Amino acid sequence: MDEVGRTLKQNPNIKVEIGGHTDATGSDKADMAVSLKRAESAKKYLMDKFNISAGRLVVKGYGKTKPIADNSTKEGRAKNRRVEFRIVP
User: Fold this and answer.
1) Domain positions in the chain
2) Which of 37, 56, 63, 81 can bridge 32 by disulfide, Cβ–Cβ 3.0-4.6 Å?
3) What is the spatial distance between Cα 11 and Cα 4, in angstroms, rounded to a whole number?
């Protein structure tokens, strides 16, 4: 996240979406809440450590809807618990 923070600091016109994700072990409702909280935590970190304005950071919780690995393994579930950053207009 520090690399993202430095990039945002150096490029003040960039706006990003912070997408929070979870594994598939919880209920849909719980996973959505956890993923949103994960994204909010990343936003707070960037704001606090790098002084990035809130208006440049859009948070979204995706829950378990976009896995990148197999949820049937411990390693796969760990990979699915993540935050992703995407530049938005």
Assistant:
1) 24-61
2) 63
3) 10
